[in-house]
What does this fold into?
Amino acid sequence: MIHREFSLFPPGGVLVWLVVAACLVQAAGTGIAAAGGTETGEQPVVELSLEKAVARALRYNRDLRVTALGVDSSRYDLRAAEADFDIRVTPLSSINYSSATGDQQTVWLLGGAIGRKFTTGIRLELRPSIDVSNEEYGAGIGFSLSVPLLRGLGRETVLDTVYSREYALRSAARALHRKRVNTMLETVDAVYSCLLDRKLEDLYQGQITLLDNHLRTTRIRERAGIARSMDVYRAEIRVREVRDSLNRVRERTGNDADRLKKLTALPLERRISVSAPIGYTLIEIRPDEALRIALAHRVEMIQAREDIDEAVRREHVARQNILPDLRLEADYSRRGSNRYRDTFLFDEDIWSVSLSSSTDIARTAEKAAWAQSRLDVSRRRLDLTSRREQIAREVRMVLNRLHKLEQQIGLRREQIHQARGKQELALIKFRYGEADNFDLIQAQTELQKARVALLSEEVRYIVDGYRLRAAMGTLLEFTPVAGTVARGEQ
It folds into this structure.
């Protein structure tokens, strides 16, 4: 019989097993900690004050950044249009081989062109060149001048593309400003919505605590024969109503938080804590004064006025395009050629002067474009009137809403005062058995509704204060694009 003993800790290996066990314990602890971190979501809470939320939205909002890319694209379009008036250097090289019966010829040419188009429509070009044909060398330098005599003469016509691109860039900058204002308004509304949800949640939670205490007291009084079963049922129904209101607020809290995270470009899984000032002062401004400020500061009015200026400018260009396309073209070149030497003596002169035109006699398309441009001027002027009326309506609507909220806030405070007195009286009667809890629960319900309405209307008043500043164009300062100043911004 063979008997063997196996030891879990062989001689000399105790230390090794201890090290392995320590590593396993550490790994298990790390796994538990990681699992607990994932479970409890131990990411730091993002503290968002009103100023921080607005600043983050104006910097990181994705829709706003897309609009800003449109401004950059318009800026590159303008640079491409301005490049048409830069000095251009165009190298030219070619090798040609031709063969015929009894004749073979190889020609290569090396040269280029240096030219520029001026803002008056004149084109000037310098063309140096060297060419070789079999064993004969040649060199020359040429000048060419092209002057428009009717169509295409003058800065307004020649710079049409540049002016159009500048107009597009300024329009994109104003669109970006309007997007910034709307983003700021949405962020302010989201911040105060989250704050309102939190305060309503605290209000409902406190109401539930009071109702639970009242329900326990009513049950005790029922067992003692002082209260009726109807009092218990009435209290239980009211508790369920308030709990249902609390659940709806909690659901809205998550939606408002997600909306704020989207506006500020925060991950949806991050937790946020929102803070904003609740205090406010009543806004006192005359409607005519608010409208005057709005018409002077709204970028929509600046855009509408420049739309008219741009339409008038394009009408002038369209009218000038009706003229015939008549051009004066002059060329001069001086050359020299020899078999091996005296190539650069330039002893040959070549002159040419011509008038050219390639215009349709009827010019039907040009006349139709001119007629359409005149219609566009009329349409832009009507748009300016419509825009002014729309801004007036916006200012008047916000002012009326603020005035109405101011009256409602005063009424809610009176309701709260009356409901509190009614609740105290009903509570005294209920304690002394002079009445059931019907009046008490009704007074508590009225008090709760008045408090909820007061909180909601105060938050709406604060947010509408920002909307009034946006309607007057003073919420954010607009900075025109550098280097392109429109007439409406001068």
